[in-house]
């Protein structure tokens, strides 16, 4: 169901332009920008309104504890990485994590990739200085290029079209893999568990994978079909809706539905740096019919959260708003409870999702950004406990991860240290869990969820 039009009072796809904007992008060639945006507005949508509504329905179920949300992918997709092997590996790791979480939570898992459009990044600093030279910061391939030259760092409107095309190519390949039931969807039993021997929990991990495989085999035997054909494995897309001109160009009305859909992705989210209730991003997001994410960090208190919930979901539509909290292992215990309490008191419906990545970023001695496996797990563990204790429910998790064997986060069964990071550090922006760390994280969360399943639901 689309939100009633009363929600959209005074809204239009470009009403955000009347509000102050954070993270504004300045284009040297305004005429080119206008021409690119008019092309983008005519090009076909990347996703459809019925897929968007399906995801919203499923998120409403996550809010009721009937499903669990898994959102994950790169911090920042790059155009270069629009490659079949990398895309397939991303799907495989998300699928595997989802099977492990299904097993642990006894709930169907909604798979939402940070992919097919995660090309624009907010930055803490607008400029970067190297050896006395100051240039605009790298903002993601939708906006500029990472090379440190004035030409590469200038915002280029043509990149909006390149980004739209890369997103379409990515999505096209994902849809084909799913339709063709690609090998790992048909045989998720291949797990690549080499890392397990390095873990003290080795026996527990093996037992869980054995149980997951057995459940898959049982289901397949009962249904007489492969798991990839059962329940038609679904993947949805998401990205930060940072570049409002781009998002607006793909926002449209569709036949036989009311409301406006942002059809550049299923689930856009508002970043922690752009969630000013009076700002442009919140204004744009309040009028679109998609399910949306809202990132909240330590500077968001209960009053601001309630303002945002009211602006973004005045009709309290289930599934419409996912609050993605990202505080950090050290401070979640202080910041999360007042937010949960405020939403509960106001009688509002949100899906709570924990992003244990963005509050746990640290710099190494050599200036690399990293995150520690133990801190990430620590924040997640606390998130489950806090929601449970307060009679609320953690409805999902949000990771920066990759299906590759990178070395960007420390810790995990192989005990990666800062000294290992130089070996395969590829991220353009934030450090991601690698294949093994992501799978191990899933096994650990599933163990915790499994324990909870033994207890009464709040
Ligand atoms: C991100 O998700 O990559 C990001 C920048 O997050 P946040 O807005 O929570 O800082
Ligand atoms: Co990030």
Protein described:
- This protein has helices spanning 30-42, 49-63, 84-105, 150-153, 158-179, 183-186, 202-223, 244-249, 280-287, 302-312, 332-346, 373-389, 435-453, and strands at 67-73, 108-114, 127-130, 133-136, 236-240, 251-252, 261-262, 267-270, 292-296, 321-325, 351-354, 361-363, 369-371, 394-400.
- It is of the alpha/beta class.
- Strand 12 (361-363) and strand 13 form a beta hairpin.
- The protein binds phosphoenolpyruvate and cobalt (II) ion (CO).
- Phosphoenolpyruvate is lined by residues 75, 122, 271-273, 295, 297, 326, 358, 430.
What is the CATH level 1 assignment?
A: Alpha Beta
Count the E strands: 14
Q: Write down the overall geometry.
A: globular
Task: Provide the succession of SSEs.
Answer: HHEHEEEHHHHEHEEEHEHEHEEEHEH
The fourth-level CATH homologous superfamily is: Aldolase class I
Chemical compounds bound to the protein: phosphoenolpyruvate, cobalt (II) ion
Low-confidence runs of at least 5 consecutive residues: none
Helix-and-strand structural type: alpha/beta
Strand residues, percent: 5-15%
Q: Which range best describes the helical content: under 10%, 10-25%, 25-40%, 40-55%, 55-70% or over 70%?
A: 25-40%
Average pLDDT figure: 92
* Gyration radius from CA atoms, angstroms: 21 Å
CATH topology: TIM Barrel
């Amino acid at each position: 169901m689309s939100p009633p039009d009363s929600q959209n009072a005074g809204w239009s796809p470009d009403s955000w332009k009347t509000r102050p904007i954070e993270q504004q992008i300045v284009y040297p060639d305004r005429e080119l920008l206008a021409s690119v945006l008019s092309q983008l507005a005519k090009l076909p949508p990347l996703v459809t309104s019925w897929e968007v509504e399906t995801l919203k329905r499923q998120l409403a179920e996550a809010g009721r504890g009937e499903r669990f949300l898994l959102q994950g992918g790169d911090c920042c997709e790059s155009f270069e990485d629009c490659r079949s092997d990398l895309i397939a590996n991303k799907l495989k790791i998300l699928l595997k994590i989802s099977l492990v979480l299904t097993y642990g939570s006894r709930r169907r898992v909604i798979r939402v990739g940070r992919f097919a459009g995660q090309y624009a990044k907010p930055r803490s600093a607008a400029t970067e200085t190297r050896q006395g030279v100051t240039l605009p910061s790298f903002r993601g391939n939708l906006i500029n290029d990472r090379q440190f030259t004035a030409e590469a760092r200038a915002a280029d409107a043509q990149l909006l079209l390149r980004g739209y095309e890369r997103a379409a190519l990515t999505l096209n390949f994902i849809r084909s893999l799913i339709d063709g039931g690609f090998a790992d969807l048909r045989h998720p039993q291949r797990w690549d568990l080499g890392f397990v021997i390095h873990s003290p929990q080795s026996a527990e991990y093996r037992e869980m994978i054995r149980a997951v495989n057995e459940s898959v085999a049982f289901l397949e035997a009962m249904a007489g079909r492969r798991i990839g054909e059962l329940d038609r494995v679904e993947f949805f897309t998401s990205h930060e809706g940072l570049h409002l001109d781009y998002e607006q160009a793909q926002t449209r009305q569709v036949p036989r539905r009311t409301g406006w859909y942002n059809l550049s992705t299923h689930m856009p989210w508002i970043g922690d740096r752009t969630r000013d209730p009076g700002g442009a991003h919140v204004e744009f997001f309040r009028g679109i019919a998609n399910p949306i994410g809202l990132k909240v960090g330590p500077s968001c208190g209960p009053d601001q959260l309630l303002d945002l919930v009211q602006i973004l979901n005045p009709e309290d539509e289930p599934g419409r708003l996912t609050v993605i909290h990202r505080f950090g292992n050290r401070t979640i215990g202080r910041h999360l409870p007042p937010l949960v309490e405020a939403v509960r008191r106001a009688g509002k419906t949100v899906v709570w999702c924990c992003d244990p990545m963005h509050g746990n970023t640290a710099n190494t001695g050599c200036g690399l950004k990293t995150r520690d496996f133990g801190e990430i797990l620590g924040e997640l563990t606390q998130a489950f406990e806090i929601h449970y204790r307060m009679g609320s429910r953690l409805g999902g998790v949000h990771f920066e991860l990759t299906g590759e064997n990178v070395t960007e986060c420390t810790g995990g069964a192989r005990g990666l240290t800062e000294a290992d990071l130089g070996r395969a550090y590829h991220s353009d922006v934030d450090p991601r869990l690698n294949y093994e760390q992501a799978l191990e994280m899933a096994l650990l969360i599933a163990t915790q969820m499994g324990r909870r399943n033994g207890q009464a639901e709040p």
